[in-house]
Amino acid sequence: MVKISNIELGEFPLLLAPMEDVSDPPFRAVCKENGADLMYTEFISSEGLIRNAEKSVEKLDIYDYERPIGIQIFGDKIESMREAAAIAEEANPEIIDINYGCPVKKVACKGAGAGILLDLPKMQAMTAEIVKSVSKPVTVKTRLGWDANTIKIVEVAQRLQDVGIQALSIHGRTRQQMYKGEADWGPIAEVKNHPDIHIPIFGNGDIDSPEKALEYRNRYGVDGVMIGRAAIGYPWIFNEIKHYMKTGTHLQKPDLMERVNVTRKHLDFSVEWKGEKKGIFEMRRHYTNYFRGIPNFKSFRTQLVEADTLEQLNEILAAIPETFAEEVML
Question: Is the pLDDT score of 329 beyond 60?
């Protein structure tokens, strides 16, 4: 049984990665229903939180059906991060997570996210302050290093464990790589198999199929895997991995009706959380992913993206199974 503090996550938990502009409550809802064991919010700016900025505060919204859930914060100032962690704790998540992995220029080049990998003493000091300021377990998500010449992930893990984090998720790329190339899980295995490391270690990067999840579990020995981009438009991946690991066989792929039903559920959550106008607008980025691979779908995608009322969208979604053969499998 893998545990973060006293939170039981099963034998081999599947985590939903925190993804900006993706991992909001509506998206998390459909992932949870389809087997995600632990999820995180989108990353939240510490400066935004302590200044009560609407966009940052909105990201604190969590719901009981999502539990266990972690709220993820980022920033480059120790005092701001300490204050933000205390504010996040008031939202009552199970976990406070620190983002030391975001590679985006406007974050990393200011010394936040993956930028702090260039200053390990500051990373350690910041983490220590956050651990002391909250009663919830603290976890960290990070990358291998800033670039190929600064990979010190074993030292990073030891420093973070020493100041009290309860679990570590590692993306198998450097900041310089962004999301290009293949994730290198070798250093992740070094951390997991190091005799001084006793907290759960979760691997992240390129897990996009049940076969790969099983292969990487067996090859690298991690305690669980974190899934990001492969879940966008395909929340079924969590249950597919669990089924494959348990039985060695594949679950049947979602048919067209199932895709429509989950898209509608996601849309309904989005409208309920954000209001009709904003909820509809922010769903537009998801339609291509939910119906990826269907031949001649372009006209329907255009209709979905251009529709501006819930009534119109429900009519369009209802017409999809009638237009395309039900046996279309993706």
Answer: no
- The first and second tokens of residue 176, run together, are 């310089």
pTM across the whole model: 0.94
SS3 for 166?
A: coil
How far is it, in rounded angstroms, from Cα 262 to Cα 328? 16
The answer for residues whose C-beta is within 8 angstroms of residue 8's C-beta and 6 or more apart is: 1, 2
H-run or E-run covering 71? strand 69-74
Q: Verify whether residue 31 is a known catalytic residue.
A: no
Q: 47 near 40, Cβ under 8 Å?
A: no
Q: Rounded to whole angstroms, what are the CA distances from 78 to 8, 73, 207?
A: 30, 12, 33
Instruction: Say what the pLDDT of residue 76 is.
Output: 97
Q: Which of 102, 230, 232, 313 is catalytic?
A: 102
Phi and psi for 202 in degrees, rounded to 5? -110, 135
How far is Cα 22 from Cα 6, in angstroms, rounded to an integer?
28
